[in-house]
Amino acid sequence: MRNEKGSVTLEAALVVPIIFIIILGIIYSTFYLHDSVVIKSICNYYCGKIQREELTTSEVCAAILKESSGKLYLIKEIGVDVDKENDSIVEVSGRVNGPFKEIIKMLGYDSISVSCKKKSKVNKDDIYKRNLVKDIVEDVMN
After folding, report:
1. What is the C-alpha to C-alpha distance for residues 78 and 64, in angstroms, rounded to an integer?
2. CA distance 25 to 52
C-alpha cells in the first residue's frame, strides 16, 4: 500500500505534458490549415481575374496583399508572384510566424507556398464580346 501512493502523481506528471503537447499541436495545425485554405482561396479568385484580363499583375499583387491582411494567423511576410505568360499562375508564399516557429523550422516547414494554376485558356473573342456588351450597356445607361 505504501508503494502505490505516489504512483498516480508520477503517472500524471508523465501523461499530462504529453496530452498538452498533443492538444497544442492540433490547435497549431488547424491555424496552419486555415491560413493555407485562405491563401489558396484568394489565389484561385485572383487567378481567374487575371485570366479574364480584368486586372493587371501589379493590381493582383496589391489586391492579394490587401485581402490577406488580417485574415491569417500564423503566416506573415507574404510574397506574391504572378506569371501570366504561359498559364495564369498566382503563387503566394509566406513565412510561418508564431510561438512554435523554431519547432516548425526543425521539421522543415519554415514557409508555406501556395500556387494556383488556371490552365483553361479564355477565348479572346469572348473577352471582346463581353467588353463590347459592357460598353453598350454603359452607353445606354448614360
Report:
1. 9
2. 41
How many other β-carbons are positioned within 10 Å of the β-carbon of residue 60?
Answer: 23
The angle subtended at Cα 38 by Cα 32 and Cα 41, nearest 5°, is: 140
Assigned C-alpha cell, 139? 452607353
∠ CA 19-25-28, nearest 5°, is 145
The whole-number average pLDDT for the span 89-111 is 68
Whose cell is 516548425? That residue is 104
CA-to-CA separations, 118 to 48, 51, 57, 100, 110, in angstroms, rounded: 7, 8, 15, 34, 27
Proportion of the chain above pLDDT 90, given as a percent: 5
Beta strand 88-96 with 111-118: parallel, antiparallel or unpaired?
Answer: antiparallel
- Report if pTM > 0.85: no
Query: Across residues 9-32, what is the average pLDDT?
Result: 86
Average pLDDT value for residue range 15-20: 92
Judge whether 47 and 118 are in contact, CB under 8 Å: yes
Residue 115 and residue 112: Cα distance in Å, rounded? 10
